[in-house]
Design brief:
Helices cover 16% and strands 46% of the residues. The chain is built from 4 helices and 18 strands. A 6-stranded mixed beta sheet has the order 10-16-17-18-15-11, with no helix packed on it. Strands 1-4-3-2 form a 4-stranded antiparallel beta sheet, with no helix packed on it. The protein is globular. The protein starts with a strand and ends with a strand. This is Phage late control D family protein. It holds the Pfam family Phage_GPD. It comes from Paracoccus aerius.
Length: 290
Amino acid sequence: MRLKLDDNPPAEIPQPGARIAVSLGYGENLVPMGSYLAEEVEVECLPYAITIHGKAAEMGGPVKEMRRRHWDQVSLKDVIADIAGEIGVQPVVDAALGAFHYEWLGQIAESNAAFLERLAERHGALFSIKDGRLVFAKRGAGQSATGKPLTGLVVTPATLITGSCRVTFSTRSVYRTVKATWMDRTTGRKRSVTVQGDKDSDAEFEIGQPFATRDEAKAAAEAKAGSLGRKKLQFTASLIGDPTIRAGAPVQFSGVRPGVDGLPLIIEEATHRFSKANGYTTDISGSIKD
């Protein structure tokens, strides 16, 4: 979190470690955006401003601690539940992702945050820790981890800040197949599994690191194929401020441009901004939906 505030007249300076509760909206219609811990506070003078850099309130302590451990014969849901219990938050895990079974899974000299990031990348997921929950949701599904659809967004010329919309079409990350390798313990030989990518390409992408089992290799290959596929169309835009806009929600353009209107897109990042010059705006960026 980066929060820059007008500080005229000067307010009391928050100290590092302070808990900051953030809500956005207009008048009495405020939407809670979560609570954060201030890590760094910068004060500007003449003109006056305060900039607070922070993180989700639950991202300290046990989340940062380096750990060495492993799990045997365990589901992904149970691993995340173990970590959530250590942090003191509630696990909220996508059912399909949580059902994945590991014969062995190791956390070797990694913080819980880094370990969760690695698992999220391997399974094509998004994870966040805030408001007392550890959420592990499927990327690009347009749903929360509980399976409820996120509120979709339609961007029109009336909500779009003039000159802010950019849509990039690219073939740089387009691959027909994605291959991952795994070690066959019964033979001691390296084997591979290949999943379908984009049919319009002739190139093959191979994941460098080997995996412990065929199931792990296949899951990683499928997640990578999805990640590469989303990069063939990426977009950015600035909108009139809307506190209900969330990362992971589906979005479409309407009446903006032929060839772009109606494409199924996903918001990957949403940034809310206040400024004297522009008022309240929301910047979004994302990609084509899987």
